[in-house]
Amino acid sequence: MLIQTRSIIVKKGNSDKIVERFSGPTPVVDMPGLIDFSVMVNKKNAENEEVMVIIRWESEEDWKNWEKSDVHIKGHREKRTQEKPDYLISTTVNMYQVQTVKTGSGSSEQGL
Q: Model pTM?
């Protein structure tokens, strides 16, 4: 399993704009190998907010297929011409190869 994290730091009061962007329709949900993605907000910092997006893929190959897909490339081309929003402070992306998964007895996820 491959997990991609995207930490997006925004000025206080703007996390809802990022959540809305990730909550709308997206072609990634139809991509083979996508397990799920989660969007979380950390408002603990007094000066800014963090939106954490976690995307889980069955394999690195599945993620690479998404990255190479026409729909993904087209989306990034369209965004190149857009100006960065003034409320966006930074974005950090990380990739993790999952080594071990343990599920609790009440978990509905079996056999990851």
A: 0.83
Q: Are 42 and 7 in contact (CB under 8 A)?
A: no
The residues pairing with 65 across neighbouring beta strands, listed in sequence order, are none
Q: How many CB atoms lie within 10 A of CB 9?
A: 20
Neighbours of 2 (CB within 10 A): 19
Q: Tell me the per-residue pLDDT of 1-48, one tens digit each, with 9 for 90 and over.
A: 999 999 999 999 999 999 998 888 888 999 999 999 999 999 888 889
Under 8 Å between Cβ of 50 and 39: no
Measured CA to CA, the distance from residue 35 to residue 47 in angstroms comes to: 33
Give rounded-to-5 percent helix, strand, coil for the chain.
30, 35, 35
**Domains within the chain, CATH numbers bracketed:** 2-97 (3.30.70.100)
Residue 66: how many other CB atoms lie within 10 Å? 19
The strands making up 88-97's β-sheet, listed across from edge to edge, are 34-42, 48-57, 2-11, 88-97
Alpha-carbon distance of 52 to 22, in angstroms, equals: 11
